[in-house]
Amino acid sequence: MAEHQDENVELIDEEVITLYDDNNNAVDFNEVAVVEYEGEFYALLQPVEPMEGLGEDEAIIFKVVQKDDETDEFEPVTDESVLDAVFNEYLKAEAEFMDECDCDECGHDHDGCGCDCGCEHEHK
Description:
Elements: E1 4-5, E2 9-20, E3 26-37, E4 40-47, E5 60-66, E6 72-76, H1 80-100
Antiparallel strand pairs: 1-2, 2-3, 3-4, 4-5, 5-6
């Protein structure tokens, strides 16, 4: 998926973030999206390596807390209503992105739109 941004959601392609678990072990995540919800920012992250208890297509939602100009902290979100709302915002942005594109080979329409879906084929 190419990088795409709407009003509250930025869909991200190929951004890896390293977080540390309780034992100070590095865990790499692919950043899927950043969602703004009620004035706060949330990151949807998928582990690069399989993670116990998490499906291959599942993501973890973290609240992004800016500590200073260069440092962000990622706090796990446990409030089910916030998790649902953030994930629904992501789904809406993903659906809008997919609606913008719709070609025969990847489901994207590139007829004059000039977008780059990252697909390995010639655009119509």
